[in-house]
Each structure stands twice: as structure tokens, then as C-alpha cells.
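Weekly puzzle thread! Below is a chain. First person to post its structure in C-alpha cell form gets bragging rights.
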Amino acid sequence: MTASLSPRPVRLLAISGSARQGSLNRQLVDLAARKAQALGAQVTHVDLRELAMPVYDDDWAAANGKPAGAVALRALFAEHDGLLLSCPEYNALPTPLLINSFDWLSTVQAQDGLPSGGGATAGKPVGLLAASPGALGGIRALPIVRTYLSTNFAMVVVPEQLALPHADQQLDALSGEVVLKKPELDQVLDKVVASVIRQAAWRLAAA
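Winning reply:
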């Protein structure tokens, strides 16, 4: 099933766990987003750094309320059907930016006709990607991200995933757009994207 077979186009978020300039993970998730759009999905790119959430602190929340960025992220998830996520590993763990953003998301309560942060993510598919200039491609952090999203946010993490080693050598700019040099890796990425869209379309059709 493709996005065209659901009642409306599938809407996906594209998020990178790295916000630095020239991020390999941003390049990889941007490529995944283009593939999703080619399959008929609508994609919204989210820069977690622009949401400007402080380090999670219950005392801060008690004094200031939930960060506007967390409330905005909840609204984005409520409006979309799935997620394409590319996250590097920092010392074999997901990035603090990713975990901090989602920790804040988990605290947002239902309000004004919108579900809670966890309610906005529940049941929605996510495809996991990672890119690294190292030999392991971020693979050590992906099981942690998988458990974190499925256990705490009830997301359906699709079985397919891509950890891209030596990503600085595997990603190449062609006609102004980044592509994967190796066809076999590009095929894996195709499978991740297609699986997320398929799951989202099934969910939409059953709604």
C-alpha cells in the first residue's frame, strides 16, 4: 500500500538528532524525505534545536510551564502520521538533543482538543536511520532509540533500519542533492521509507 491508497496523503515528520551545520544525519534524513515525497507522502522537516527546549528540569517546568517548543512538537506529531528519524550516536548513546526533546514531549498534557505528547505519537510508525564517519555507522545507539520510542511513546518502529558507516564517503552531492553512492545502501533506505509509508497508510485506512 502506498500513500495514494490512504484517504489522504500520508504526512511524515523528518527529524535529525544532530543539528550541527553539515550534519551527515540531516543529509541522510533529507534524502529519506525526498524518497517519501516521491512515493506521494507529504513531509515536514523539524529542527529540534530551533524548538529551543532547555535541559529537562522539573523545577524549571513548575516555575515556567512546559516549553513552547515541546507544545509545538506535540502539535506536529498530532498532525502527522509517522516519523523518519536519523540520529547519530554520542558515546554509543542517542544524542542529548533527541532525548531531551522527546522527554519534554512526554510531559505535555492533552489540551485544546489535542492529545498528550504520548497520545500524539502512539501507534505511529517510525523509520530509524543513523550516519557516522566511523566504521559502525551509529548502529550501537539504534537499539536504544528503538526501545525508547516503542516503550515510552508507543510508536511502531518498523523492522527495517539503516546505519550508514563512513557516511562522509557514502553521501555525495549530485546536481545539488545528496545521494547514496552505493546502490545496495540506497535500496535499504528505500525499504525503510516504504515500510513507514505502508504502516502509516494502513493506519489511515483503518481509522
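Puzzle host: Confirmed. Bonus trivia for everyone else. Residues 183-206 form the longest helix (24 residues).
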